[in-house]
Amino acid sequence: MPVFVDIRVYEELNDFLKKDNQKKIFNAAFPVNTSVKDAVESLGIPHTEVDMILVNSIPVPFSYRLKNMDYISVYPVFESFDISGVTKVRAAPLRSYKFIFDVHLGKLSRYMRLLGFDSLYENNFSDPEIIEKAQKEQRIILTCDIELLKNSRVTHGYFVRNRKPKQQLEELFSRFELKSLCRPFTRCSICNTILIQKTKKDVVSYLNLKTKKYYSEFYYCPSCLKVYWKGSHFQNLERFFRTLDV
User: Where are the domains of the chain?
Assistant: First the structure.
């Protein structure tokens, strides 16, 4: 016989549920010996989006096996708050924000670099490569692929809901409370390397005549050799970032 349980999912985790099950208690049936992790993911919720699960008001790990008539409460990741003394399903939140993006989020990764966030992206990253790099470098995986986040090796990840880059950026700022952590124009938008401030003399061979004449403050990427200065492109980006709803 199956195991019957009552489930309540909170806040943004409802985005993953069928409409009929959102924001209310609903009943579900699972095979005997099903783990709470498998049960939650069968509903469409990646385990990386979950920070705390209560069964009958008691915190449980992902390995907990469902029992008949259990009441399950599923809470989203509290990345901005340390609830490690309560939660039992995942390690403590990452205190240093470093991100890795899937192949669908190239423009978003560039925006994040321009704002100073350590953002790893290559348009040919495979899912195993993303997971491996995220583990080794303690990065948060940002993806549009729910199945990637369901991989048991993934510990920190977030499913990006919006599809337009500007809205995606606003979503990340809200989700991870990033506004106070911005360090605009301190990273190379192409390769993610931290920029080095240089004098005009240091980079003069890279500059055209107008740039030499009108600008004196320059930043240099030691990896891809790109030179940055606060020209019209910089001003356009500043105006864009001021329009963000964050």
Answer: 3-76, 98-181, 196-229
